[in-house]
Write a structure and sequence with these properties.
414 residues; alpha+beta; BirA Bifunctional Protein, domain 2; Rossmann fold; 16 strands; binds adenosine-5'-triphosphate; binds magnesium ion
């Protein structure tokens, strides 16, 4: 039989790749906890409507990227392409819409049928945060500051730039949209074919177009800044003041519209020039209708998601594997004592392994190669005295110590 391969666009997390991945997750989880976020986990697959209702009929994710299938019972299910809609569904189905605000952290795999390339996969992983039930621009700034704190803690503070934009409220967007459509209609023939279709379905998406033809037209397109109503302008000003208060630097980028349809007011991306075309590492924005679409009350919220694979690629050095302690039984009768020692070390929170196979020489060679810092040797003679030999592999020094003291002695040193 041919050797089976992982499915295109998926990958195994093993060795250094796994360590980088875990480091991103653990760092994000730790920082998010300091901001009062609690971790939720929702199912990997949902009723297809959780996503089709919310992401918008014209978003790329819904029209082209979803892994949707009918299960054996005939229900239409979808492997989650993103986390936000599922968190909103969970807020409603767990009866939490009256217990707001909720600060939710999540992490895990997402699935999108995209063309695989560096930093772009079909199964990828995200860390994410949602602050549900607040409409304060200062808390948008705080949510963004938390994202930045995670990036800084990962050592990426200098590698990323925060770009922000406002998408205004629905009224402002409607006014701008009208002006945009009028402008694009006038220049219809100059638009790419894809954007000619977008013109009817979702003209805002044209702003996100990668086609050179479309981009040329954008320079003279009506600017959203001129269509913001008072309320939207107030929000936008307060967001930028808030970011100043939190000490997070930003640049304004009017092109940020975000790929999903549900955003309003705040939209932002942390970008890097170190990953080629896949430069966005953490992105999000404010939304309002999502919880209502799940059958709950209208609930203002702000959130973001970060791509773990992209963040892991950016990490300078892979997190190190902690050095361990090897335990070796060298006597005929000392195995029970060796098992006792290795378990006592583990109970003390230390990494320890029994080294069992081969001659003593072979075992010591293997231990040296493993990068262990200490070896505990249990021989018949020492055991009679209640002792073991403790060898420091770095200093190449050995001394006899009471077995009962081994965990305490090593806890101080390792
Ligand atoms: P992009 O413009 O790169 O397609 P997006 O707007 O579709 O991103 P979001 O839905 O906002 O991305 O997801 C948040 C983050 O998740 C992205 O900034 C990126 O880091 C990561 N991400 C999104 N899609 C993928 C993918 N297919 N493979 C790896 N990471 C991804
Ligand atoms: Mg995308």
């Amino acid at each position: 039989m041919n050797q089976l391969q992982p499915v295109r666009g998926t990958h195994d997390l093993i060795g250094e790749t796994a360590r980088r991945h875990a480091h991103v997750v653990e760092t994000a989880r730790r920082i998010a906890a300091t901001y009062g976020y609690e971790e939720w986990a929702t199912p990997i697959f949902e009723d297809t409507r959780v996503f089709s209702r919310t992401l918008g009929d014209t978003s790329d994710v819904v029209t082209k990227e979803m892994y949707t299938f009918e299960d054996r019972g005939g229900d239409s299910l979808t492997l989650r392409p993103e986390g936000t809609a599922a968190i909103c569904r969970a807020l409603v189905t767990n009866g939490l819409t009256q217990t707001l605000p909720q600060r939710v952290f999540y992490q895990g795999p997402m699935f999108r049928y995209e063309r695989p390339q560096k930093g772009r996969f079909r199964q990828f992983h995200q860390i994410g945060a949602e602050l549900l039930g607040t409409a304060e621009p200062l808390l948008d700034a705080e949510t963004i500051a938390m994202g930045y704190a995670i990036l800084k803690e990962l050592g990426l503070g200098d590698a990323v730039t925060l770009e922000i934009n406002t998408l205004g409220d629905p009224e402002s967007r409607a006014a701008w949209r009208e002006a945009l459509v009028a402008y694009f209609r006038e220049h219809r023939d100059a638009l790419s074919e894809e954007s000619q279709n977008r013109l009817e379905a979702n003209p805002l998406r044209i702003l996100d177009s990668k086609s050179a033809q479309d981009r040329a037209l954008l320079d003279d397109a009506p600017a959203f800044a001129n269509y913001l109503n008072d309320e939207s302008r107030r929000f936008w000003d307060a967001l930028r003041r808030g970011l100043d208060m939190f000490g997070v630097a930003f640049v304004e980028n009017p092109r940020i519209v975000r790929g999903l349809d549900y955003y309003s007011h705040t939209a932002f991306e942390f970008v890097t020039d170190k990953l080629g075309a896949q430069g966005t590492v953490l992105a999000g924005g404010r939304y309002e209708g999502l919880v209502a679409q799940m059958g709950g009350p209208v609930t203002p919220a702000i959130g973001w998601a970060g791509g773990i694979e992209r963040l892991a690629l950016l990490l300078d050095a892979p997190p190190e594997v902690k050095a361990g302690i090897a335990v070796v039984s060298t006597g005929g009768e000392t195995m029970p004592a060796a098992v006792g020692v290795v378990q006592a070390l583990r109970n003390a929170g230390l990494k320890a392994e029994l080294e069992l196979r081969g001659s003593l020489k072979k075992r010591m060679e293997r231990i040296a190669k493993s990068g262990a810092s200490y070896v505990v040797l249990l021989g018949d003679e020492e055991l009679q005295r209640g002792n073991a030999q403790l060898r420091d592999l770095k200093l190449r020094a050995q001394r006899e110590v009471p077995i009962a003291d081994v965990p305490r002695l090593l806890a101080d040193e390792v």
